[in-house]
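Kindly inspect both lines:
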Amino acid sequence: MEYAIEVKHVSKVFRDVKALKDVDVSFSRGRIHGIIGRNGSGKTVLFKCICGFMAVTEGEIRVDGELVRPSVAQNIGIIIENPGFIGSMSGLRNLKMLAAIHRRVGEREIVEVLTRVGLDPGMKKHVQKYSLGMRHRLGIAQAIMEKPDILILDEPMNGLDKQGVIEIRTLLKELNEQGVTILLSSHYAEDIEALCDTVYEMEAGSLTQVR
């Protein structure tokens, strides 16, 4: 199938506010797609609709050809807003608990993915004491640990220092080379320029391709 994600004339209305306005776009499989736009432009709402966290008001969304419906699990790794972790546990314990839901990966794979995002799997520090950058690294580890075909990342570079940004960019490029389709948003034009094959701009709920 040519497209990993198909968004067909989708609108989303909250009371009197039209958060998405007839968004019609298809994201090709195996590429990195970037969306830029100010806070409140509709990027996060679009991501939540693609993941099935929100029902659309009009139109439809398909992932891998299957119609997206709220509460139906998709093969997608997700970072949207602040990942929810239990603050009184270590990063490793958080991921082990989440992995137990689907039982697709064990401790060895979790240790590997924590190392891959630059976190020490043996660190006992509780997540509530993590820096913002460490939390984002843990969020990325959660998103990729079950080896999804599609990654949806809302501002994945937030809170990372310069070296951290370089490391996560490298990781995303490696994942893409392995066939993972990535859809990401960023406030930073450098991230989009360095990573993305296609670029779209979201403004007041409307999406326009700019590259």
